[in-house]
Write a structure and sequence with these properties.
heterodimer, A: alpha+beta, D-amino Acid Aminotransferase, Chain A, domain 1, Rossmann fold, 6-stranded mixed sheet, 26% strand, elongated, B: 7-stranded mixed sheet
Chain lengths: 365, 295
Amino acid sequence: MKLFEYQAKELLKEYGIPVPESELAHNQGEAVAAFRRMPHPVVLKSQVLAGGRGKAGGILAASNEEEVTEAFGKIMNLEIGGERPSCVLVEVSVPHETEIYLSITLDRGARAFVVISSKAGGVDVESLKGRVIQKISNKGITKGEAQSVAMKLHLSGEERERFSRIVANLERLAREKECELAEINPLAFTKRGGLTALDAKVILDDNALFRHPEFSKLHPEDEFEGEASRQGFAFVRLEGNIGVVGNGAGLVLSTLDLVADAGGNPACFLDLGGGAQRERVEAAVNLVNKLPNANRILVNIFGGITRTTDVAEGIKSVIEQGVMKPIYARISGAEEREAREILAKTPVHLHPSPSEAVEAAVRSQ
Amino acid sequence: MILPRRGEAVIVQGITGRYGSLHTKLMLQYGTRIAAGVTPGKGGESVEGVPVFNTVKEAVSKSRARSSILFVPAQFFYGAAEEAVLAGVKLLVAITEHIPVRDTLKMLELAKKHSATIIGPNTPGVIIPSQGVKLGIMPATSFKPGRVALFSRSGTLMYEVANELSSNGFGQSLALGVGGDPINCTTLNECIDLAQGLNETQEVVIVGEIGGDAEERLAKHILDRGFSKRVVGYIAGRHAPREKRMGHAGAIIYGDYGTAESKINALKEAGAEVAMTPMEIPLLLRKRRDRRERT
């Protein structure tokens, strides 16, 4: 789960990492009131999860009340990566000279968490020149290791001390809150010699959320993603018109590829999970049936532990309840003949292979 | 990594749960010798005729098993794995999904210290058709004995591909799921090292997916060390959106890191052929075997 910038900055503050003074504004009045309370100029920042906010025009400077009002309106009406903000962060603008990139992240190849840092704070981490990477043991970073990151960045004296404290604090945050990524980009050296986190990105380990009740109410979720997660489905909303349902993440992923290769456009990714029974199939088909951008449903099942007859019964039962967008299905595996018989008298378009079912779903009008 | 052979004792941790008991039955049907099970507090019961113990230590001392398959819920997983390793278990098959990544890292560290191997987590397990050994949840009917070693990051895709292979005359010497999580305790690199040593294995099929760089690392490993057997790859997720977790915890693209394109290119550079759909995999294998038989 990715946190909004303001949530990430609250965590930084909790861990003793300096962030600029800021306030969250949900309406114009709040934005202006926040502006009056803080030193000027300020920046207004769109609180969306999508990246590239600056380039998209989601971060605007303001030095008087008219500018605040205008910037607030612009940002609230700006969609970034298909996402509209529900609030704006009003933040004191921090004059600074140099920037640093700093993150604690999981290095999947090294199978360890690492500190990544670079003197060139910037947009694209992968292309950062002269970046320093320091592996961290499961017990956490030592003071010496944090210092050595600072030395490799050629920091000295007071700067080195301040920076290594921030490295250590950010690592403790990432470890204690179980983040996959805790990133400060940029970390700015202010004109007064301090260090301040101007932007922050935190991605939590979803699988560890059961140990962190403090995060349980953080997100206003997409209605459908919320419903899917309550049902225990892996679900991703996409922008096309073909709702894709299958059993197993890899299988659904490969079905999305088949759809796109055939010239179609998926409306969602829905993985029923292993061993799904009739009720779960019903719930899944119902969910996609309600999804406004889906006008047809493609079901790809390879039955192993999942019984194909359970799948067929589930589909038949939702159709009998009076739904339905057209359904195209491929159902293979154990008991597939019985499954086909169950669906024979329904309007479901059954196809013997995934590619034929995909082709039919894409071509139909 | 030492995989169990026919008749070798195996234990099941979490044997009394819904999945644990169902798959105990299916593994027994396949021929795996499940000698004991473990569920704390359920000692003295039995599942499918298999005696249940309270601790791994008891189960191991009664059965002499060196391998365990785990169906323990994610929040208790680390404790169960630790118990197994400390009781002397040398191979752990971690079926459980949704284990926190920091628990997996701790588990991996502990396993290394005790020279134990973990397959997974979030894996369908491993199957050796010629031995009648299955430590996993895969549907047995898709797998036939043969000469292809199949390694996969995804469960259902592994079954689908195995089924395609089997019905086209390509049985498997071994099929192993490395798992859908960001951390694979047994890596694809270790898998092909294993395949290199299996005499009956003629080709290797790699089923990858978006996220991370396991396939890129595999390609580099093949280029650095050399690999004498044919490799055919398939990567799911060519059209997946960025920054969205596609079902598996590990299936997520960040920026240009973890794209299907990067994996496909890397495998091709290492001399592998890459199929665009699961159905194409047996066709590529057929072409290669035919070519070899002609020359």
